[in-house]
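Risk register update: the risk of archive-format incompatibility is retired. Evidence:
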Amino acid sequence: MIPGLSKLAETDQWPDFMRKLRTRTLKGVWVQSFVGNGLRKAACKKIDLMIIEQNPMKGSKWAQLAREGHEVWQVFVQGNYAGVIVDERLEVYGRNHHL
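Archived output:
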């Protein structure tokens, strides 16, 4: 479970959250910016959660999906990989997850 995100992903508010994430219009506790390579990033310091757009130039399976045109975001909690969002679907990593 990802605090504040797992439950949201199960509600009818999730598509609106994703639209705001894409268009950088999240408000309230969210701070949005770009990382050095121009990829979008959103952070909620209140719960130490960060969502970063997947770099398609990397060698991972997630980067491959991004190159194929899928919308891919990596989710971090307290600086650790916690999950991934692919085409608005949240996948929470388990304890045995390896990238």
